[in-house]
TrEMBL record:
This is DNA transformation protein. It comes from the Bacteria. PANTHER family: PROTEIN SXY (PTHR36121). Residues 7-83 form the TfoX C-terminal domain.
Amino acid sequence: MTSGQGDLQELKNLGAASVNILRAIGINSYDDLKAVGPVTAYKRIKARGINVSKVMLYALQGALTDTHWNDLAPDLKAKLVEQAEHESEVEPS
């Protein structure tokens, strides 16, 4: 699945726990995740005090591109981490 209002759990890398976390921050579909983007979604999760690793950031990116998180290019992973750590503004959820 790559678009539409379908269930988040159908996306690659996202299991029940990840889907519950995303719903807790107001992301309920692929379209929601795409609109927010993986970095902002990750930062919202962290801002809620939910303890997740950088793998969650990679998983969110992979969910949008139908790519297993471990198959993302190392430079893309580094860019995502840099954006998540150095952009201080978190949009409200």
